[in-house]
Amino acid sequence: MVVQTVWGDLLGRRGDWLSERPDEAVAFREKIIRRARSQNFAFQSDMCREAKRERYVLAEKYANAVHADLHLMSEVNTTYDIRQVLEIARLPGNGEEHRRRRFESMSLFDQACLLAAIDTADSFRAISDDLRTVIGEFNARLFADRSRHVQFQLAVDPEDKYRVKRMAIDADLTEVPSGWIIREETRFCRDLRNGSFVCFDDRPKTPYETYLKTLRRNEGKEGDPFQVADKCGLKFVVPKVEDALALRDQLIEMFTSMRGNIIACQENLTVQMAVDPSNPHSSHNFRAVKMLVAWNEREYEIQIPTFQDYFSSLCATGRENHALYKLSKCLDIYFPILYPSEIYGHPWDDAGLREDLEMDKRDQLERFAKRKRRY
Question: Which CATH topology does 124-374 take?
Fold first, then answer.
């Protein structure tokens, strides 16, 4: 596989990013360039731009307090040809700025090569096409013709990390305790053929998201790092727990009739545990059915939370919130690799820094939870 070949070449050489003797490291990467067809240079340069953009967004969203310290140096940021990016690593000097420039140019080169390999092996377009195919099956077998806006009133408790405590659908809440915040939300929902309804969404994994998952699997020794199964994500948000369990059974029956394979199916809507106990960053307060289904030579990850748990994952300041879940992965895995303290001066395992970044994100979430309030 292309990804395994390129990443196998580069995975064991991440120490080159911090090397003070770059000549051999650059020469090794020049061999990779020579092996590539000439027409791939433009594609790799496109992926170089993509790596820069995603790197910037990741720091802006999850390390906003120190975001300015993590910007690429100008000569790296304004170079787009993948060969020229690599040549920057050869520039002489042993000062702090020289080490940073070497790190940024060499790490950016490696990321661009892997993104190109990921998209060549399993393109974002192919992933999107497969999602369109399976959604066509949902349209034929699961969804009714009608779609509609649904109004939600949410009672949020500031004393319990802004979790959603009560909810009314197309109605007003009554007898809400003093101090709770009333939020109003609207979602576009699909009617089901069985008379219920869902808020349905799909999420194809981008090459950079696959790259981050590969890093996580490699660091955690989670099996084969190249086997990223959840490139096609599907989410059905339902009114009640019994609706989630019924839809789970319906999806199992549907995929089985289509000669699909239910690889895994677990839930924590009726038990007190993390929905994915093997994931140390997963919170038991994020409640859903989670399925991994193989069909038509593609694996699909399906989540089925209730609306109450779904809105809590947006409003709450606990670890069930997706932004805080992602922040914990950034601090534990991604930032030490992409922004090492030896280069950028921020020790990601420092309790004070982690607390500052978590408080910054919680402050953002609290401001969000207090919006659209009515007393």
Answer: Beta Polymerase; domain 2 (3.30.460)
